[in-house]
Amino acid sequence: MTNVTPIRADMEYATAILARADLKVALDAASKVIEKRNYTPILANVRLMACGDRLFVTGTDLDVFVQTAVACEAIDRRLDVTVPLGILHELVRKSKAPTVTLTAPPREAIDAMQPKRDAEGNPISRAEKIVVTAKVGGSAIEMQALPSSDFPAGNSDADEHSFKLSATVLAGSLDLVAFAISKEETRYYLNGVYMHHSDTGGAGELAFVATDGHRFAKKTVPAPKRSAGMPDIIVPRKTVDIARKLMAQERGEVFVSTDGSWIRLGFGDMVITSKLIDGDFPDYNRVIPLGNDKPATFNCEAMASAIADVTAISSERGRAVKIELSPDSCRLSVKSPDNGSASADIACTTACDAFQIGFNATYLDSFINVVGEFGDEIELTFSDAGGPAVVRGRSPSWTGVLMPMRV
Question: 388: closest CA among 407, 364, 404, 399?
Answer without folding.
Answer: 404
